[in-house]
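User: Can you help me understand a structure? I only have the sequence.
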Amino acid sequence: MDLPAFMAQSVRSDPQADWRTWPFGYGWSDSWLFVGAKLLFILLLFALLAYAIRRLFGPGGPLREKWMDEDWEHQRQERLRELDERLANGELDRATYERKRRKAERR
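Assistant: Let's start by predicting it. Here is the structure, written out as tokens:
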């Protein structure tokens, strides 16, 4: 028996197995307050999942490969070195240098 036929048979064998038993129900037959609360709950779940993935696999995350951050760190050091050289050559004033350095360190 293939999988789609098995699934169809299992749904037919259970008289309560329809969308009314799904935890969110039909959704649109409820009042607008319940519909909004359900949609908000689902959006909250997706946001939580996205945040967890970002924290785990994002820059500096514990499950991120270390080699992925090496290139970024090298580029940041190059930008800071270039700013230091431009300040030493007199191409930048101190205020512009500080502003650009803060911006380069945030990236």
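Now, to help you interpret it: The mean pLDDT is 78. The radius of gyration is 27 Å. Let me know which part you'd like to focus on.
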